[in-house]
């Protein structure tokens, strides 16, 4: 029975996007299924107005015990039939238990951490794989086919109006750049972004937009790039997840390290050049698409794809050069027609 399904997928942004094909598959299998999603505040706006999500419960974990008690109160009335716990850390124990579902599906002991496997009474075994593949496995106990994969992530009608106004000022193809991630070790060398902006302008005839959040670090890096670049990029930082979504949707190309906006672009079929040195793109790269646009310095040349490898590799982001990224941009132009239809 799956009349009401509770999805426990708290954070981060990329993981929440990877959960959308599961929600869509549930709804496609039975449109009457009610889906409640428990999420933390930062990625919660991704779920706004999503056609497969009936209710969003926000877990303010950073409030500590008051946040946990508030979550328990919010969930006391839900009583879903099935809870799917996608997260593998202890924070997911609270919403999984508070759901009160008779069926609690999660990952087995080999793939979960912090004893989270103990709160699942149906544990899905398997190997460590791409995050998207692992999430799709949770549909198995429910007998639901995940195919075809659908994200259904797109701007609302009102957001499309704002998008049109934002992009109307550009006369050339627009490349979005996300220079920072949630973990500095994943980030590219800050000083190289400005040189890339100038390369995009000089060699490709592209304009650049800097995208990101409101943190002091993100703002500082963006200002540094803006100051150093000859071809001044547009600053579009820090005004929320939904503006980030509709801006990415309107781009010709996105360039980013391992961070949530990269997966947002892939979900909306916006070509994305991913920069990988610290993390394994076969595990966390854009799922099933744009692999030819990766700059992969995590794996040694000739190494076979192995998404089970998760250990960070330090000092490898520094191996990525501006010409490396420019070469992938050229591939995006040649294979995906990036910029060729701009303004038509």
List keywords for this structure.
6-stranded parallel sheet; 11 helices; alpha/beta
Structural summary, described in words:
With 344 residues, the chain is α/β, with parallel strands linked by helices. Helices cover 34% and strands 15% of the residues. The protein is built from 11 helices and 12 strands. The strands form 2 sheets. Strands 3-2-1-4-5-6 form a 6-stranded parallel sheet, with helices on both faces. α9 links the parallel β10 and β11. The relative contact order is 0.12. The model has no long low-confidence stretch (mean pLDDT 93).
State the major sheet.
6 strands, parallel
Give the proportion of residues in helices: 25-40%
Shape: globular
Task: State the separation between the terminal residues, measured CA to CA.
Answer: 49 Å
Q: Total helix count?
A: 11
Portion in beta strands: 15-25%
Counting helices, strands and paired strands, the structural category is: alpha/beta
Q: Rg, please?
A: 20 Å
Sequence stretches where pLDDT stays below 50 over 5 or more residues: none
Per DSSP E runs of 2 or more residues, the count of β-strands stands at 12
Mean pLDDT: 93
Q: Major sheet: order of its strands?
A: 3-2-1-4-5-6
How would you spell out the order of helices and strands? EHEEHEHEEHHEHEHEHEHEHEH
């Amino acid at each position: 029975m799956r009349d009401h399904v509770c999805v426990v997928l708290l954070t981060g942004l990329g993981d929440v996007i990877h959960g959308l094909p599961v929600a869509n598959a549930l709804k496609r299998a039975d449109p009457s299924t009610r889906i409640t999603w428990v999420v933390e505040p930062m990625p919660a706006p991704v779920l706004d107005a999503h056609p497969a999500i009936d209710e969003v419960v926000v877990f303010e974990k950073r409030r500590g015990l008051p946040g946990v008690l508030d979550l328990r109160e919010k969930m006391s009335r839900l009583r879903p039939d099935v809870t799917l716990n996608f997260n593998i850390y202890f924070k997911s124990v609270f919403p999984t238990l508070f759901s009160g579902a008779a069926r609690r599906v999660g990952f087995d002991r080999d793939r979960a951490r912090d004893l989270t496997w103990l709160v699942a009474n149906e544990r899905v075994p398997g190997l460590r794989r791409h995050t998207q593949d692992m999430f799709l496995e949770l549909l198995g106990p429910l007998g639901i086919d995940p195919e075809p994969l659908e994200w259904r992530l797109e701007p609302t009608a009102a957001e499309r109006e704002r998008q049109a106004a934002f992009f109307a000022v550009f006369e050339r193809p627009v490349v979005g750049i996300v220079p920072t991630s949630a973990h500095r070790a994943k980030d590219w060398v800050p000083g190289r972004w400005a040189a890339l902006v100038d390369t995009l302008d000089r060699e490709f005839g592209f304009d650049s937009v800097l995208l990101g959040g409101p943190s002091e670090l993100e703002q500082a890096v963006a200002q540094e790039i803006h100051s150093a670049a000859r071809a001044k990029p547009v600053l579009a930082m820090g005004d929320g997840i939904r503006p980030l979504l509709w801006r990415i949707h309107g781009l010709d190309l996105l360039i980013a390290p391992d961070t949530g906006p990269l997966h947002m672009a892939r979900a909306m079929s916006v070509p994305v050049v991913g920069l990988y040195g610290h993390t394994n793109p076969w595990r966390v790269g854009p799922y099933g698409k744009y692999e030819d646009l990766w700059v992969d310095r995590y794996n040694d040349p000739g190494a076979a794809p192995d998404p089970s490898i998760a250990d960070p590799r330090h000092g490898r982001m520094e191996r990525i050069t501006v010409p490396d990224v420019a070469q992938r941009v050229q591939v995006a132009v040649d294979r995906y027609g990036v910029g060729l239809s701009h303004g038509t």
